[in-house]
Structure formats: structure tokens, C-alpha cells
């Protein structure tokens, strides 16, 4: 990870000075938005395919299991390999991703046994694995990074603080040995515990121990005051590089296998027949989902991450029918959620609507005394913004939105009303019953409509210049005649009758 | 008559399991005192009791979620309860009934939202559930974070609804759960027929004038009530396991709804009680997750051991079928060889039989020999008296089946599926059989 970061920083330093870059990265908002945005983009890309394959809830199962993977890997690292557990270590990420993949396999096995339905298999697998993880956490882990709160919401607001330091100039690392002038020597009793005596006892034996010996990287050396010249340092948050790698991998996967993914999503049988191995592709997809779920664990926790997989693609699917466009829209929606989510957590919806005022309003309406300062979870707020965007898409989507669907329905009802009235006039005009059938005053009775409705339809037809009213009876104009003919032709065609029947 | 008798046996077995589990569940407290040396404090008693009662409720109602393929609905609804808890706290403070009502309203709204999405968009069911789960939960988390940011609010313990905290349960909570649970079970009893109908054939129910939408809503509401009651114990994340695991386990043992529901209730009580007892052994083992683990162990046992459906059972039956099939084919080979060489008791060389029958021949020979139908002499495999009779009967049976296929219509025989493994004589009525046998005597097949 380190060389990659260095490469990126060197690239960025061609545009920015070191101070500017450090200032940018030290802002919690910038780092949180960046990390959230990257997670949202990779989640949305993969989630699009999950949604289209009807596998959205699999991401739920995977993200729950990932917790178990992380806990087990964490315990293994600390207990067996004696390495300090770090939730952003690459080994831990790989191990936990394997656990995620394992769930998919387990679920599939349960389902294939034919004894359990697919949804039940999912619903069985992940509460179990999650329960085991929770038991392990509360039984064996005493680390602040893995407590139950971190599981739920992550620590995206603190992402800026956990950094790798990169040195570019004056890079003097220091090794403090016992003979180093800065070494702090202390006396330590070697047999006190063994004999159960106090250090004041005369039997106590002492050795000199160096309290601060060891290797100092340039950054640590500078902050410990061991260096004279200030090294040129860049502090790069670890979460950003993890999220960046995830996003690049996802992007590469989707771009490289776009054709295969598309085919196996919409027609798995054809994909198989053409030799594309949709099974292998499916597992690759699930492996990436696991990877993203693990990578996002630190930032947004193991439950909220599924929002990034499910909601943006669902919103995009309401806006377009084209896969390519969906793959463009859903990352945008997710990223917008990350950008506005930080503001929302600090009390500002979409950058200009203050939440505090809304709480004040509620207080006034219900006579409550709630605190008007809104300071909330960043990751949850990001999800909420994404959800709000989804609601907007649901209501206002030009093709599948609630409003446009309602308008279309009204339109087609009107069209139908117009056409049956025209057909009625067409059938009866110039016949013996024309006088009774077509009299405007009683026309509504023939349709069992209200007088008002018939009035509206007739007014519309007159405005469209389709009928005229001649001495209290309705008569088709030339234009109306033409419409009635067309309607008749389409009706006959719809019922598979030759239109030459007339 | 035969299949009914078999079902009767199944019935008795299931009721026996139910009774045994119920006895074990009832004896929990004395048993664990005797075996584990566990000291029953007030807390342990209350938690074990609460867990069992909740298990009964969620097991019984969870069956319907399992059978309707709505297992994940429980997941979404339990997560969706969180904002309700938070809002109820903001409005009414730490009053358990208020919190539970808030939770119920929130997850019920989530349910309606899922229905609205499904009705007006092309979003699939699982995605709709995921949307509700994630966004309701996020709203709840945001509210909890807001509540925690309020200075000196007595919010302590509110986030226990997420993972559940059994230790915080007191006797009055158990009373509340029992009372509401009893009402829910009563509703289940009263609407038993309707629930059964919409679960298995909702179109038929609709065609017969039942108000399917209303019944569905009622059933879902009952599931919401169960989830809400369980939140304090199991928490929003794990509640889904509590709802569906007993149902899935019970499904393996029986094909009848009433048995399944009762068995699931007993399983649920067992898991709830045992989980609570185990977690009482060590302070660091949380109760909710432990209950889930116990419930899953029950599922695992059921999946492997359940008679008829279980994996072991199925494997045994496969082996049995394989052996019977191999034995029959080998018997036919032997008989045909012997007849072709003069007499039915003519031995067939070992290499010949193994060559003809390939790998299944070894299996078949072993089976036939253990049943005493063949003997291995110096000249090879020889059919015994019983083997000859068996082979002859089998040949006759196969001929009758051949005739049945050709002349069933002409002879006016009743229509039935051609199952050549069965004795046709046992399947046909006597007069029909007589006609078929007459045809055989005519030598129509030769």
C-alpha cells in the first residue's frame, strides 16, 4: 500500500504544495467525503449488477459475515502471529473477504440442499455468523477499534487521524540505542514479581532498561524532538488509500468485463452456452462485493454499507433503462450522498436547509424542548441523503416516477373517453336513431357517465375540432371522422380482425 | 390405506418430539442447576423465562414468514424499528411500552413502504427490503447519535435495542411480553384458517371472497409485533434469526401446518431458555447472540437428522435405492444367463456377471448373497430356490407391465402411472388383473 500512496502523493504534489496537500487531508470533512464518495462509487457500481441479478440482499449477508471474518482474522493476528491487529491491514482485508465469499458458498449450499428456500438460507446464515462475531467480540476482544459501536456506524469522521507518513526531504530516520544521548534509562526490578517482594526489599535485583529505544521513522523522530531539520512530510489517511484501491479494482473489473457482466446478468443461459462461465464471473463479483464491504467496514460499519450497494442502483433503475447509463448514474447518486451527508451530519441538509430550524419548528408545534443543535453520525447521514435522492427519483422520475405515471394514466383515460365518444357518434350518425342516441342533453346516459364528465369530454372534443353541435345533437367533423376511423382500425387490429370488414 | 397408516406413524413421531422438547424446556431450571451447578439469580430466571416466552411467540409466527418466502422481511422490519425507538424516546422518555409502540409504528411504516414500492415501481422485493432496512436503520442511528450528543440526557441503554440486552429485562417486561404475546397467539388461533389459506394459496383465497390484502396485513402486523417484543432481548440485527430459525427447523420434521407451528414454538422456547442459561455461565457471553446460536444448532440438527427430509436420511435412502436397483439388475442378468444355458439353476461365471453388470454387479451380488438368493460355487454364481422364484416373479411382473402398456386401453384397465419397480398385481383391482393375466396366458407378448 505504501509505494502506491507515495506514487499518488508525488503525482498530487505536481499540482499542490506540500502544505496545501497536508491542510486538505487534515480536514475531517475532506477526508470523510473522499472516503465516503469512493466507497459509494464502488458500492454503486457493484450494486447495479446485484440489483439486476436480484441479489441485493446477498450484500446484506456478506456485510454481516465480514464482521466475523474481521474478528477471526483480528484474533488470529493478535493471538497466533503476535502482530498488532489493525483493521486496515491488507491481510485482514483479504481474510475477511474470503469469509464473505464463504457465506455466499454456505448460502448456496443450504439452498442447493433443497431443504431451505433461498431467502431463508440467507436469513439463517447471516444472523448466525453475526451472532458468533458478536459473541467473539464481547468475549475476547478488548480493542476500541472493534467495539460494537464501530460495527454499526464506523468511524469515518476520524478517518483523517489514522495516517501513514511519507517523507520527501530531510528524511533522517533515527535508531535510539542505549548509548544514544536521548535514550531514557530506567531501573527495573527483575525478581520482584517472582519473589513477591517490593522493590524496596533488599533482595531486589535491578537492571537498567531503555524506555524509548527503537527505530524512529522521520515523522516519529521529528515529533520526539530527535531531529534538527524538519523533514518534509505528507500525512496520508489510510482509509483513503484503502478506498481508492477498492474503487480502482471495481472500476477495472466493470470496465474489463462489461460485456461478460452484461450478458450473464440479462441472459445467463446464453452466456453459458457461449462459454463465458457465468458461475466464475458471479463469484468474482461476490469477491469484489466482499472486498468493498470489508474496506468500508472501518468507515461506515457493517450494516450501513448495504445502503451504498442497494439504494443508488435502485434510484438509477427508476431513471433509466440503459445499463451503461445506470452505471453512470448510480455512482453519481452515491457520491452525492457522501458529499451532502457530511453537511447533514453537521446540521445542514443539501447545504442550505438547516436541521436546527426544523427541530425548532417541531418544538414549537408539539411543545417539546429538544436540543436544536443537530450533530449526528456522518455515515448514517450519508445513507439518509442517498435515501432522499432515491425518494426524489421515485416521485419525479420522468419515466417511472409517481407523478409521470399518474399523468400518463390520466392522459390515457382521457384519450380512451374521447375515442369511445367519437366511436359512438360515428356508429349512430346518419342512422334512424341518431336523434335519440346523439342528443347532447342525454348523451351521458348512454355511457352511464355523470353529466359533468360527459360535458368535459364534449368540450374537449369541440376544442380539438373533432365534433360540432348541430341543433342539440353531436356531429363528427372531418377531423373527428378521421380519428374515429383510426380508432376503429386499431381496435380491429388489436382483436385480430381484418379492418376491411366494414 | 397404506399411505395413511404411514402418516399416522409420522404424526405420532412428531408429537413425541414435541412432547420431549417441551419436557426438556420445562425442566431447564432444575436440570441446569443439577448439571451445570448454575445458581439461579433473579436475573437469570427472568431472562430465561422471557427468552422462552419470546421463543414460543416468534417460533409460532415465524413459521408463516418461512412458508411465505418472507424470511428477509423479518430482517428488514427489525432494523426498521430503530428510528421508532429513538423518536419515542425523544417524545416520551424511557418508558418501555412507549418505546415498543414507537418501534412497532416505525417498522409497520417500513412494511407499508415496501408494499408501496412494489406496487408502483419495478424494483424487486429484495431490493425494496434492502432499501427500507438500510435507510430506516440509518435514520435510527442518526437519531441515536443526536440523542447521545444531548448533554445529560438519560439515554443510557437505548442502544441496547441494537444488540439486545437481556440483563436489563425485569419482571414487568416479561409480563408485558407475555400479555401482548398471548393476544397475538389468540389472533393467530382465531384466524388460523384464513392465515393457512393465504399462506398456501392466496389466489384461491381471493377467488373465494377472502380479503387477502387485509389478512396479509394482519399476519405481517403480528410478525411486526413479535419482532418489536423481541428487540429488547435479541436486538434489531439478530431478531430475524429468532423469527425464522425455529420455523425452518420445524419444517424439516413435518408436513402439517399445525404440527409445524407447535413444534416451532417449542423449538423457540428451547432456544430462548437454553441460550439464556448458557449466557448466564459467563458474564461475557451476550444472551441474544447465544440464543441465535442455539437456534441454529437446532436447525442444523433438523437439517441432518430429520426423518424423511434430512440429509442423512436422504443419503441412506439413496444408498438403499442404489442397492435394490443393482440387486434387481444382477438378478435379471443371472436368470437370463441361466435360462439361455438350459436351466434356471445353471451357474453363471463370475467374470461374465461382473463384465455385464459393470460396477453395480459387485453391489448387487453382495446384496443378493446376503439375502440368500444366490450362492457362489466353483462354476460361478448359482441362483437358489428363493432367487429363482424372485426372478420368475419379477419377469412375470415386467411382462404384465409390458402388456399393461400395450393393452390398457383395449382391456379397459384403470389409468395409472407406470412404476415398474412396483408389483402391478398390488396396484390393479382384482378383475382388471384377471383380464391382464388372461392376456398373458394367451401368449400375447411372445
Which helices and strands, and how do they pair?
The complex is a heterodimer of chains A (502) and B (446).
Chain A: H1 2-13, H2 18-26, H3 28-52, H4 56-79, H5 90-112, H6 118-140, H7 148-153, E1 163-169, E2 174-176, E3 185-189, H8 192-195, E4 206-210, E5 214-216, H9 218-223, E6 232-237, H10 238-256, H11 258-266, H12 268-273, H13 278-319, H14 323-345, E7 348-349, E8 353-354, H15 355-366, H16 378-396, H17 402-428, H18 434-437, H19 443-447, H20 451-463, E9 467-470, E10 473-476, H21 478-494
Helix pairs in contact in A: 3-10, 3-13, 3-14, 4-5, 4-6, 4-13, 5-6, 5-13, 10-13, 13-14, 13-16, 14-16, 17-20, 17-21
Chain B: H1 2-26, H2 28-36, H3 42-67, H4 71-80, H5 82-92, H6 96-120, H7 125-149, H8 160-163, H9 171-190, H10 192-200, H11 202-207, H12 212-251, H13 257-281, H14 287-305, H15 311-340, H16 350-370, E1 374-377, E2 380-383, H17 385-411, H18 424-427, H19 430-442
Antiparallel strand pairs in B: 1-2
Helix pairs in contact in B: 1-13, 3-9, 3-12, 3-13, 4-6, 4-7, 4-12, 5-6, 5-7, 6-7, 6-12, 9-12, 12-13, 12-14, 13-14, 15-16, 15-17, 17-19
Features:
heterodimer, A: 502 residues, mainly alpha, ABC transporter involved in vitamin B12 uptake, BtuC, Arc Repressor Mutant, subunit A, two-stranded antiparallel sheet, B: 446 residues, two-stranded antiparallel ribbon, 78% helix, disordered N terminus
Could you describe the 3D structure shown?
The complex is a heterodimer of chains A (502) and B (446). Chain A contains 21 helices and ten strands. With 502 residues, chain A is mainly α. Chain A folds into three domains: 230 residues, ABC transporter involved in vitamin B12 uptake, BtuC (Orthogonal Bundle), CATH 1.10.3470.10; 71 residues, no CATH class; 99 residues, Arc Repressor Mutant, subunit A (Orthogonal Bundle), CATH 1.10.10. In chain A, β9 and β10 form a beta hairpin. The longest helix of chain A has 42 residues. By secondary structure, chain B is mainly alpha-helical. Chain B folds into three domains: 297 residues, ABC transporter involved in vitamin B12 uptake, BtuC (Orthogonal Bundle), CATH 1.10.3470; 70 residues, no CATH class; 55 residues, no CATH class. Chain B has a two-stranded antiparallel sheet with strand order 1-2. Classes of the chains: A mainly alpha (502), B mainly alpha (446).
